[in-house]
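Please produce the structure of this protein holding 4'-deoxy-4'-aminopyridoxal-5'-phosphate.
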Amino acid sequence: MIRSAFQYMYDAYGNTFLDAYNNIPHVGHSHPKVVAAGQKQMAKLNTNTRYLYDLLPEYSEKLLSIFPDSLNKVYFVNSGSAACDLAIRIAYAHTKHKKLMVMEHGYHGHTQIAIDISDYKFNNRKGQGQKDYILKTQIPDTYRGKYTTNNDSAGKMYAMEAIEQIETSDSPIAAFISEPIVGCGGQVPLDDGYLKEIYPAIRKQGGVCISDEVQTGFGRLGDYFWGFEAQEVVPDIVIIGKPMANGHPMGAVITTSEIAESFSKGVEFFSSFGGNPVSCAIGLSVLEVIEEEKLQENAKNVGDHYKLLFKDLQKKYNCIGDVRGSGLFLGVEINKDNCMTPDKELAHLIKNELRNKNILVSTDGPFDNVIKSKPPLCFTKENAQLVVNQIEKILQTYYNKE
Ligand code: PMP
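Below is the modeled complex.
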């Protein structure tokens, strides 16, 4: 790749690609306002965060204004992994407990702590295995799991099983961390009512609840700015990253005054680059563009349309087992015809054939059979139509050959 603009990327051979996968350039690749904000600030002042500059409180206040009132303290770092690591340290400092509850197939980053709490990594064939201070709970997957959408209260039933784990834990749990839609699990949304049951149970035994919004935050889900809103809960700690600065490395931990106060009693927190003037200028411009270009609304309108197109395709092709997700964060599960057996080969064929047609998506999930689409939020209905039309063509060719 040599250049990019909004939802398009251009390679060294003169090809144009539609990027239906990349959620980091959230408001669009090389968005001119974001680029200008970074360039301007870099030419003016960039410094180690030991110094004082207005952009830090200005950006912090704007960012915190999008959170519920109780979440009113922010720490800036340079990645989702660093945010995750810091969030766990903060949870330890506040609760004085050591055990952590995590979700099956969850992913939270690459630091040692992040790997320890990421089933997607520690449970990999080549992974380190589950550490003894980790308690893992099953993913509330209503498609492949134990309780399915046929059951109105599936979310609650999964939650009841998790609560039993909490109540029978040999030691108190410091924190429970989950993503609102489990990306590496294959875009699996937490079923309705799930967190509403679990959060009080974690708090009751002295722990805190962390929402990992690294993938789902900043309006991507359409109906909500943050994923936890869909579950009608307010976490104690939120971690953000990836889309926050449109590709510039930035992450943050947001928490309550009470938890921040506990953390401040320990050794001082310091990050050389986290929240530097250039990062703040870029972060601020991203928030402005989301507002000015009504990108959350676009994620909702285009996302709903995109999902419907996939659902229509599902009616024609039995290999599409499930279409799920919200806004511009979708997953399409590919199975062997008329059954629940995952078809990784077909999912990969679709992904690779799309790439040959200059459209970029990816696959994920425990069977690697879920097509993932999470494009920049400037994605259009025409872009969505193109992706689905091309998948249809690929499937037509595939079935004609069989
Ligand atoms: N949390 C989630 C949900 C993620 O998807 C990722 C990255 N894929 C991270 C945390 C870690 O972020 P980073 O790679 O920016 O450190």
